[in-house]
Amino acid sequence: MKGISAVIAVVLILMITVALSAMAYVWFTGVFEDISGSAGEAAGAAAAQIGSGFSIVSAYDNNLVADEAYVKVTNTGTTTLKKEYFNILIGTVTIPVTPGIPAEITSTQTGDLISGETITHTITNATTSSGYIGEWCGKQVTVIYGDLEQVTTMACQ
């Protein structure tokens, strides 16, 4: 009896084939889960943007009230815009829209922006010595919601 018998050889080949098939299955499953997970996240983000839209109605510095400016935004889309996804930049300063975030510059938006609704953000510079913005007039105002962005110039009133 030289070598191994044919029966043992067949059993070994079947075991190796089953093991390789199992490894290939596990690998392909992981690859497809990663691909479908990434695609699902991208599709979810795109779906959130569909129907989303807004416009800046006005942005002005009220010279009668020290260190106060107003940015009026209208939801022109068909979906409700969540307040936590809004940011306003005046010049290069980011203003958190969500109340309660400790900052010297705050906005008074209290709820989400429903389709067709207009909201006025009252932005105040709580400490005049902070030097955050100083003179508001003529500065670029950028309102950002997720990937959407609108730009205008701060008017003086």
Pairing-aware structural class of the strands and helices? alpha+beta
Q: Approximately what portion of the residues adopt beta-strand conformation?
A: 25-35%
N-to-C SSE string, H for helix and E for strand: HEEEEEEEEE
From the coordinates shown, what is the CATH architecture of the largest domain? Sandwich
Major sheet summary line: 5 strands, mixed
Shape: rod-shaped
Domain unit count: 2
Kindly state the mean pLDDT as a whole number? 75
Describe the structure.
The protein has 157 residues and is an alpha+beta fold. The protein has 2 domains: 1-50; 54-156, Sandwich (Immunoglobulin-like). Helices cover 28% and strands 31% of the residues. The chain has 1 helix and 9 strands; from the N terminus they run αβββββββββ. The chain has one helix spanning 6-49; strands at 54-61, 68-75, 86-90, 93-96, 105-106, 118-125, 140-145, 148-153, 155-156. It has a 5-stranded mixed beta sheet with strand order 5-6-2-1-9, with no helix packed on it. A 4-stranded antiparallel beta sheet has the order 4-3-7-8, with no helix packed on it. It is rod-shaped, with a radius of gyration of 29 Å. Mean pLDDT is 75; it is low at 100-105 and 126-133.
